[in-house]
Amino acid sequence: MPKTPTQPGDNAARSPAPFDRLSSLLERFRVRAHLFHTGPLCGVTHFAAAPGRGFLHVLRRGEMLVTHQPLAGPPERLAVREPSLLFYARPLEHFFHNAPVDGSDFTCAALDFEGGASHPLARALPPLVLLPLASVQGLQQALDLLFAETDRLRCGHRVLADRLFEVVLLQLLRWLLDHPDEARMPPGLLTGLADPRLARTLTALHDAPGQAWSLEQMAAQAGMSRSAFAARFKAVVGETPADYLAHWRLTLAQAHLRAGRSLKSIAQELGYANPSALSRVFAQKLGLPPRAWLDGLEAA
Fold first, then answer.
1. Distances (CA, A) of 144 to 130, 135, 268
2. DSSP H/E element including 170
3. How far is CA 185 from CA 34, 106, 171, 205, 247, in A?
4. Using CB atoms within 10 A of its CB, is residue 120 exposed (0-12), middle (13-18) or buried (19+)?
């Protein structure tokens, strides 16, 4: 039988078409994984905090106790009793406590966030995401491939394991976008990308940061009125649309400065009238003009 044409009031007509919320973000600000351990851990294992460094641990078997410094964010003592994934998106000292008889088995990678603390995901994520492996849909296939590489020493296994850890991270980020409430995500970039309407505006801002965005244009991307859009954006993302755009432009400016680009070319690309205008906003928001900020970065 021929299909009945979709009417304007049908749900299908109102349902937004799916689109990619992560690729442009991760292409601009990469995360590199580096396998550093596979197998059991016994006694107390210390993972130090370092700028721009995160960790992705997979507890494959067994149980363990994790401890953090008081007031670090996550609980001071945390018992993990089933196969789980522990994702530290920002520098945070932590300790694994494993008795030799427990038989716990781990696969662990360090994560290097391009740009360190200014990486948008590092800022948006909580200090620790702890999830049972069984709860993350689509993760098992990637883990099977990862474990197949880490369980046997073969040519190129470390390089392939690094890439597979990045696949696991991407699967985790997808799950967080689909389950922000279960993950208890704080207001920010990921909760905004998890909102079907706000995600369209955020993705548009990420793709065209130099456009002269008005509140009306941003609201139109979300298919909302200006007042409803502004209120929802502030509640879900935690800042006004204008502030988010300014911070996104400055995050890009920092990345371009680290790459050696001139202030003039950066200002033109990001929609500033001239380098002086960008310098004023940079100093206002970050406390230093671009040249002084870059000098301090190089000295560190």
1. 19, 15, 46
2. helix 157-178
3. 26, 26, 16, 21, 20
4. buried
Task: Note whether 7 and 90 are within 8 A (CB).
Answer: no
Can you say whether residue 93 is alpha, beta or left, with left for phi > 0 and alpha for psi between -120 and 50 degrees? beta
Residue range 23-178, CATH number = 2.60.120.10
Question: Over the stretch 119-151, which tens digit does the pLDDT of each residue have?
Answer: 998 888 989 999 999 888 878 888 888 888 887
Coil, strand or helix at 111:
strand
CA 278 – CA 251 distance, rounded (Å):
12
- Non-local (6+) Cβ contacts of 145 within 8 A are 164, 167
CB 139 within 8 A of CB 172: yes
Superfamily name and number for 195-299: Homeodomain-like (1.10.10.60)
With a cut of 80, say whether residue 236 has pLDDT above it: yes
What are the sequence ranges of the domains in the chain?
Answer: 23-178, 195-299
pLDDT > 90? residue 14: no
The token pair that represents 197 in the structure block: 């309407």
Helix or strand holding residue 211 (H, E): none
Please report where in the chains the tokens 């905090």 appear, as a residue.
49
Mention every residue, 6+ apart, whose C-beta is less than 8 A from residue 261: none
d(CA 150, CA 38): 7
pTM of the predicted protein model: 0.84
**Residues contacting residue 72 through CB under 8 Å, at least 6 positions apart:** 92, 93, 127
- Summarize the chain as % helix, strand, coil (round to 5): 50, 20, 35
